[in-house]
């Protein structure tokens, strides 16, 4: 069987690898400015983004590009590359190894190619629609945990002004913690999704997520046999609403119910 | 300069390495019983503990031993080894790589030797009182982050019956998240301490911690130049109270104030 999107996958992997090398080569960088609280931006972040964009434009000049640092429009029409040159920026700034480059190609049918490259963990994830998901070339499969209470979960903490209600959200987190094997907060949405795909956690839930945080990661989840939806009642898909449930499929309904009741 | 406790360090490292090999050799194990919610115990956990205890008894037959799975008494009189054969058990059971073996020797002056061996991360931390802390032989130093709001924090979620008030605790976590670069929840207290020692997070706070969770990790923090205390107002030291603040020293007072106000 031929893998779909071979040229796109090759470019995505190469661009992510170059950006990862740039990010991991210079040690912990200086801050250049603060956007808002934990939303830090570093010089290296912006340089990595320029590098990825340049490579994509060279190979696919007519594709659209949405990237975190230069995001001007959130149009996803036709083929669009969605780039986070450094997901887990706060971790990176502190020398915490949970940080990665995320590169995805989305078309009319949704995510088509996704690469999550975590240089400090030595892990490169990639997925292609219809072609499977892989960690360092090893095929990935979501976990087989069948009941919500037997699950381990990943989440992010919404911390930006105007994005959700922290108190309600932490009540939900406490609820999931109290009813399950636990909740992990690693600080990188892209890697949280990759962990679901790898079967290391059974589901990931978050709100206030930007498309570049999860476009690649969500493809890994579906290609590893998992399920991706918005939150209960949402009318928009998760890449637009920023409200994500990504699971092994089996614990999805359980988590949906808890999340729905939380009123977040 | 000669390193203090050379024989004890060698035995601790060897025992931890053997236990780590046992733990990482068999893939994800079956559960044998559930203690309470996320507090899972696996066969491999108990086998690893027997292995460590046997090695310590062979070399230091008159020392006391406190170990998680066979803990009968919490007497820390004279020289006592404090062992967690598998910290981060819930992670381990789910195939999440944040799990480790923790071996410490405590004497009248406190922790003397500490080893935290994380086989799935390829990281072995060790520390000796007066001899420094190391990650894979590289000397460790806590971070230089000087202000609380510029810090990244690690915590655990207290989940056992009767240990703290989850609602109050999550209010505290939300407060720290809202005022800082963020809070991480990795699921292994020993590794959280090791991350403070490595400068990857700026402080770790938790309640309801058992001595075997942190005896080795807290030595890593102090030997890397950090500071370890109980929570404000505590009359017992953290290894007895299970209430731990471990920081780079610089953000300690800021965190103490937030934690003190929380009333947890």
Query: Distance N terminus to C terminus of chain A?
Result: 44 Å
- Secondary-structure content class of chain A: alpha+beta
Give the strand order, joined by hyphens, for the main sheet of chain A.
3-4-5-6-7-8-9
Kindly report the average pLDDT value of chain A: 89
Radius of gyration of chain A, whole Å: 17 Å
User: How many β-strands of chain A, per DSSP?
Assistant: 14
The main pleated sheet of chain A reads as: 7 strands, mixed
Kindly report the CATH topology of the largest domain in chain A.
Fructose-1,6-Bisphosphatase, Chain A, domain 1
Helix tally of chain A? 8
Q: What string gives the helices and strands of chain A in order? A: HEEHEEHEEEEEEHEHEHEHEH
Task: Count structural domains of chain A.
Answer: 2
Q: What is this structure, in a nutshell?
A:
With 264 residues, chain A is α+β, with helices and mostly antiparallel strands.
Structure description:
The structure is a homodimer of 264-residue chains. The first copy, chain A, has eight helices and 14 strands. In chain A, the strands form three sheets. Chain A has a seven-stranded mixed β-sheet, with helices on both faces. In chain A, strands 11-10-12-14-13 form a five-stranded mixed β-sheet, with helices on both faces. In chain A, strands 1-2 form a two-stranded antiparallel sheet. The first copy, chain A, starts with 5 loop residues before the first helix and ends with a helix. The first copy, chain A, folds into two domains: 134 residues, Fructose-1,6-Bisphosphatase, Chain A, domain 1; 115 residues, D-Maltodextrin-Binding Protein, domain 2. Chain A has 264 residues and is α+β, with helices and mostly antiparallel strands. At the A-B interface, α3, α4 and β11 of A face α3, α4 and β11 of B.
């Amino acid at each position: 069987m031929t893998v779909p999107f071979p040229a796109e996958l090759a470019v995505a992997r190469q661009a992510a690898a170059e950006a990862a090398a740039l990010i991991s080569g210079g040690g912990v960088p200086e801050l250049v400015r603060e956007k808002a609280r934990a939303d830090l931006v570093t010089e290296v972040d912006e340089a990595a983004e320029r590098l990825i964009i340049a490579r994509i434009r060279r190979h696919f000049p007519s594709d659209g590009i949405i990237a975190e640092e230069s995001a001007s429009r959130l149009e996803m029409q036709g083929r669009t590359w969605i780039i986070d040159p450094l997901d887990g920026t706060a971790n990176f700034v502190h020398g915490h190894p949970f940080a990665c480059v995320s590169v995805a190609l989305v078309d009319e049918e949704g995510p088509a190619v996704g690469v999550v490259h975590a240089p400090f963990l030595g892990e490169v994830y990639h997925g292609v629609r219809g072609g499977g998901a892989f960690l360092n070339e090893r095929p990935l499969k979501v976990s087989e945990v069948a009941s919500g209470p037997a699950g381990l979960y990943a989440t992010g903490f919404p911390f930006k002004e105007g994005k959700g209600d922290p108190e309600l959200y932490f009540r939900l987190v406490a609820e999931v913690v109290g009813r399950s094997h636990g909740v992990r907060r690693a600080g990188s949405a892209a890697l949280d999704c990759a962990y679901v795909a790898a079967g290391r956690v059974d589901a990931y839930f978050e709100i206030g997520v930007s498309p570049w945080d999860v476009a690649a990661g969500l493809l890994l989840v579906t290609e590893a046999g998992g399920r991706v939806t918005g939150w209960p009642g949402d009318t928009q898909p998760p890449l637009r609403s920023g409200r994500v449930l990504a699971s092994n499929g089996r614990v999805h309904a359980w988590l949906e119910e808890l999340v729905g009741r939380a009123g977040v």
